[in-house]
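Q: Second attempt. The first request was missing the SMILES, so the protein and adenosine-5'-triphosphate are both included now.
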Amino acid sequence: MEVVQEVLKHGSANSVRAAIRADKKSYSLAQLIAASLDVHNILCSKNMARNGVQDSLEENNGTGLLHGARVGIVAKPSPEFVAGVFGTWLSGGVAVPLALSYPEAELLHVANDSDISMVLSTKEHHEIMKNLSIKCSAYCSLLPSVTSIPSEINPQEPSSNEVTSSVSSLITEINSSKKIKGDDPALILYTSGTTGKPKGVVHTHKGILSQVQILSEAWGYQSEDQFLHCLPLHHVHGLFNALFAPLYSGSVVEFIPKFSVSGIWQRWQESYPKDASKTDEAITVFTGVPTMYTRLLQGYNNMDSDQQSASSYAAKQLRLMMCGSSALPSPLMKRWEEVTGHRLLERYGMTEFVMALSNPLNGTRKEGTVGKPLPRVEAKIIMEDGTETTTGVGELCIRSPSLFKEYWKRPEVTAESFIEGGFFKTGDTVTLDEEGYFIILGRTNADIMKVGGYKLSALEIEAVLLEHDTVLECAVLGLPDEAYGEVICAIIVPKEDAKKMAEQDSKPALTLEALTSWSKDKLAPYKIPTRLYLWDSLPRNAMGKVNKKELKKLLGA
Ligand SMILES: Nc1ncnc2c1ncn2[C@@H]1O[C@H](COP(=O)(O)OP(=O)(O)OP(=O)(O)O)[C@@H](O)[C@H]1O
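A: Got both inputs this time. The predicted holo structure:
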């Protein structure tokens, strides 16, 4: 709620300025707020309660609030999506962003698991969502379109002052009646399911506010910033780092419909033409996952030298470039810095607490690390025997004002996920370097391999293999073995030129023998992969992550 309130404040101060850009149109904060009010009216209308099939909506009882009813939101990254979330919050509902990429079975799992009462969707998804709503006994409505900033003022439209004051009085009324409390659920996000069936992670209004404040403070988000946004909105990276926190800080968010290598380079070049001018709509911040930076570099390699120099020049002008969601390989970080001058700011986060550790905005950004705890976040490492360590290896545990409230309808799992003092067990194995920077060794149950008595980090081995000239991408995992417990298997995607050369010579791009001999002075003998697969690509989810549990099943079979 406070995020909406803050957006409202920025909106009142500067109602005509764009807050969001999408599909070559601009949307002001006032327009966003007006659309949120429309969503609120849809959700809380009596008509809606009468037509609605769910108790929670009927319990509305004329209070104008949904009392925590779950509202599924289905829209591509757009102002309509934002208005859907804000309108749900203004109505006392809990927003559940639904992934556009999910197959129906997974959508149904999320919709049923979260007991969705209502689905709000844009036109392009409405037919599918109507069918889904019937199956999960929910009501379905269209998200109202948000009007864009017109070239001329339309007298029919309510003035921005009228709209902001309507929302302002609604918020004052809600606040004074204490109908929505900070501890109330506001958002349910589903985990990607790389470690089990997707679970609903419940975030509260208070937790969301804390997180956006932490990020704005740590990374210096400001109203002059303009974010280029190309991430999905059902994960914390796209939702908090690149949308809620920027809007809270009064920044502009420009959505590009789909990640496109040429689109991104072009957008940076348009922002900063080489004649040293800068457009009003110049992008200043970019945040992405490692695979995006890999692809952007591939695109860069394919440019002619003029294009390369224009691209490098433009990228250098941005204020900040960040990376996370999975490990950023050192060669990628180094090459990106050579090309753009940006030392990527790597940070670590998770659905359950959003962001917790980060390399600094000002200060040394150390490769292979995810930095230190963000403001007001506490982190400790707990070893297998339950004791804390500052020098050894163990499970990362996090306490933060942005910690989730619970796993939806899973009280036992929630209880098991915390240790004394309210620290959340991340399931990630970590250690500290000599300066207290955290190093992520990987998911304990997917990236930590047990090979002949050694516990090995797949991420550490991947980082080394990525230095090989032939290797474009790789995933290392442990496969069951009678003698050793597990053996190290590397799946490697060779670089295009290496593949072409190998095809010409009718040879594989890389052999296990060649990899072993190359690895000898880089890895201890027990860390060298003993199985090798050459693939054309790695299967990745919407956040660019490889599901190693699935890969193990596939290769084990
Ligand atoms: N900078 C980073 N370096 C290495 N790993 C990271 C980094 N940032 C995030 N991660 C990984 O991503 C995980 C959090 O992602 P998310 O919450 O989407 O969970 P998931 O593992 O993908 O899915 P699930 O919770 O369903 O298993 C972290 O626990 C960590 O393993």
